[in-house]
Amino acid sequence: MRTRRRPGPHPRHRWSRPLALGVACTLVAALAACSDGGEQDVTVGLITKQETNPFWVAMKNDALDAADDHDVDLVTATGSSDVDVESQVEAIRRMTADGVDGILVAPTDSRALVPAIEEARAAGVIVIAVDTPTDPTSAVDAVFATDNRRAGALVGGYAREKVDQLGITPRVALLDLAPGIASGELRREGFLSGFGIEEGDPVISGSVDTEGDEDLARVGMRELLAEDPGINVVYTVNEPAALGAIAVMRDAGIDMAGVVVVSVDGGCAAMKSAVRPGDLDATAQQYPENMAAQGVRQIAEAVRGGDRPSGYLDTGVTLVTRYPMPGVASENVPFGVRNCWG
């Protein structure tokens, strides 16, 4: 855990990336007094999942920038993986005991964190789930996240069109996140819907949990190919998993021109090394800056006498590909590079 104290105005101000304004937060008035007639001190906690995935690193850096911009103390904590529940529970309870005004948390388990979150809110802490909703969503004040089902549907619809264009009979591999994490479950549901199939469809060759980790994705992809060497459609829950799967397929001598690989994220590493050359056919780009910046800003405003955040804020998602499909709305790789993170 680390505390970032306010150093004064930050020299760098980023422009805001695409934000879906049509699904705005509903707001409930909440008053907070200012001390000595000036701006009230505000402390916000940010709890991410781990620090090896560029998405979480980018979110923390964006939160630090927003904290500087809004004169906020930021306390950060992170776990060891996307399934490290214990570290997040401990961080929520420690931040609550230390008297933070608000917490932004990306849940590693949408249900297991609820008791700790409820304790924090009972103590007067504003809690916003970022990236991953809680179950139930009412456990937090607000959710600021990608529409994960739509992200999955975007890449699923693209994959269906690409399969039809190639004229291949699909054999689908699903590289998922882990049980109990709503963002991963929603992306899988969206992909299946967008591709036009349901759970149990015979075109699904197999699925594995990767925890969003590149090395675990390599292991899982090898297992899936051993069971079905004819896999030709690969859905991955995020880009680290996609990079792992692509590496395994290349090592196996598979012609990537005959395989459709899709994912969700929009980070700079995959955009430049996989989407640009075409190994990753399409990705649904999400925007961690909008989650972090909006979260810090809205907590600060609520504590200083503004409206309390509530409801759901869609922080935006865009399909990016080198190979656009007729009838599928998308942006090109230069757009993806301009708006990537990490």
Give the helices and strands, then pairings.
Elements: E1 2-4, E2 26-29, E3 43-48, H1 54-69, E4 73-78, H2 85-97, E5 102-105, H3 114-122, E6 126-130, E7 142-145, H4 148-166, E8 172-176, H5 182-195, E9 204-209, H6 214-227, E10 233-236, H7 239-251, E11 260-265, H8 268-275, E12 282-286, H9 288-303, E13 307-314, E14 317-321, H10 333-338
Parallel strand pairs: 3-4, 3-5, 5-6, 6-7, 7-13, 8-9, 8-10, 10-11, 11-12
Antiparallel strand pairs: 1-4, 2-13, 12-14
Helix pairs in contact: 1-9, 2-3, 4-5, 6-7
> What ranges have pLDDT less than 50 throughout 5 or more consecutive residues?
1-37
- Through-space gap between termini: 21 Å
Radius of gyration, rounded? 20 Å
> Could you say how many structural domains there are in total?
2
SS-based class: alpha/beta
Quote the beta fraction. 15-25%
Mean pLDDT: 91
CATH architecture of the largest domain: 3-Layer(aba) Sandwich
CATH class assignment of the largest domain: Alpha Beta
Dominant shape? elongated
Individual helix count: 10
